[in-house]
């Protein structure tokens, strides 16, 4: 059973001194993959090359075509733009499906709840239009997970921190269900 193996691996690796820092990543303290860390940070920049790859530059995501035929056409189109000087390659400018604030919020929720650090509810309150209502919707979305001990909320009145974290391993096991419920609650705001 996959859930049993996930729980077993999590427990075993922790007894050997590994931390479970992402939903599917473990490392000894101070030895986390720097390559993976960038994907979990809000507004980070990375370049990805290849079929179906996605880059993030200046808060905008750029996806490459997902089929080989479309990818070859895309590469040839980029080559023509560079060689003729007519138009900018599409990896240098935002395309029509730039992330808007809602897309960024969705991405942050989805990625941060899959990390040991968790989701900063103050970021939602302070960096988003209608932030306090959205933070409350997130809390409604995780209410059952909190009741079932699959998630925890950590508030610190001294420094104002307010984080929501999924518990290891069971919160991570049910992360798709929990995150989906958060999105349902956020959709109710619209």
Distance between the amino and carboxyl termini: 39 Å
The order of strands across the largest sheet is: 5-7-6
The major sheet is characterized as: 3 strands, antiparallel
What does the overall shape look like?
Answer: globular
- Assembly status: single chain
Task: Return the string of H and E elements.
Answer: HEEHEEHHEHHHEEHH
Percent helix range? 40-55%
- Strand count: 7
Radius of gyration: 20 Å
Describe the 3D structure.
The chain is an alpha+beta fold and 190 residues long. Among the domains are: 2-32, no CATH class; 101-188, Orthogonal Bundle (Arc Repressor Mutant, subunit A), CATH 1.10.10. Helix content is 46%, strand content 15%. It contains nine helices and seven strands. The strands form three sheets. It has a three-stranded antiparallel beta sheet. A two-stranded antiparallel ribbon has the order 1-2. Helix 5 (121-127) packs antiparallel against helix 6 (131-141) and helix 6 (131-141) crosses helix 9 (175-188). The protein is globular, with a radius of gyration of 20 Å. The N and C termini lie far apart (39 Å). GO terms for molecular function: 4 iron, 4 sulfur cluster binding.
């Amino acid at each position: 059973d996959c859930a049993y193996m996930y729980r077993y691996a999590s427990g075993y690796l922790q007894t050997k001194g590994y931390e479970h820092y992402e939903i599917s990543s473990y490392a000894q303290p101070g030895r986390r993959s720097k390559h993976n860390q960038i994907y979990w940070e809000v507004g980070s920049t990375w370049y990805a090359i290849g079929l179906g790859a996605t880059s993030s530059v200046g808060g905008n995501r750029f996806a490459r075509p997902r089929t080989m035929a479309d990818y070859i056409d895309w590469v040839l189109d980029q080559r023509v733009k560079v060689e003729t000087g007519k138009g900018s390659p599409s990896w240098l400018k935002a395309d029509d499906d730039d992330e808007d604030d809602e897309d960024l919020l969705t991405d942050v929720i989805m990625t941060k709840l899959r990390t040991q650090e968790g989701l900063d509810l103050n970021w939602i309150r302070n960096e988003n239009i209608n932030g306090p209502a959205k933070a409350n919707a997130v809390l409604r979305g995780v209410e059952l997970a909190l009741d079932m001990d699959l998630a925890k909320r950590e508030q610190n009145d001294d420094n104002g921190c307010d984080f929501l974290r999924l518990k290891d391993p069971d919160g991570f096991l049910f992360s798709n269900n929990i995150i989906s419920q958060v999105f349902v609650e956020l959709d109710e705001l619209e």
